[in-house]
Design a protein that fits this description.
alpha+beta; six-stranded mixed β-sheet; 6 strands
């Protein structure tokens, strides 16, 4: 699976000024999407963002890392993300171990 196929197969989200924004059915990366919204690279790296794929909600920040801000944002928002995306039986994670493009990147911390 190449990068654009992965991007199209997931629902991307960002937490921006207290709002959860979604990008569905698009080949854009988070960075491309944020650039299209006028979000600069410094702000982009501070955003808590993530994706939904295969009944998993994954949160991270910067270079796919988890930290206290990511975990707190996750705990505060994952139920709304699940509701907004009609998820019933799902898992929630913070952070991923980067792998090669096309591979499934392993989530790190399971929250739910």
């Amino acid at each position: 699976m190449n990068e654009s196929i992965f991007h199209k197969s997931r629902v991307a989200f960002i937490i921006y000024h207290g709002n959860i924004l979604y990008l569905r059915n698009s080949t854009m990366s988070h960075r491309e999407w944020c650039n299209s919204l006028g979000i600069n690279n410094n702000e982009y790296n501070r955003l808590v963002r993530g994706y939904i794929k295969d009944n998993e909600i994954v949160y991270y920040q910067g270079d796919f890392k988890s930290n206290e801000e990511v975990i707190n944002t996750c705990v505060d928002t994952y139920k709304q993300v699940a509701l907004d995306n009609n998820l019933k039986d799902y898992s929630v994670y913070c952070g991923v171990v980067k792998g090669k493009v096309g591979e499934r990147w392993k989530p790190i911390l399971k929250v739910k």
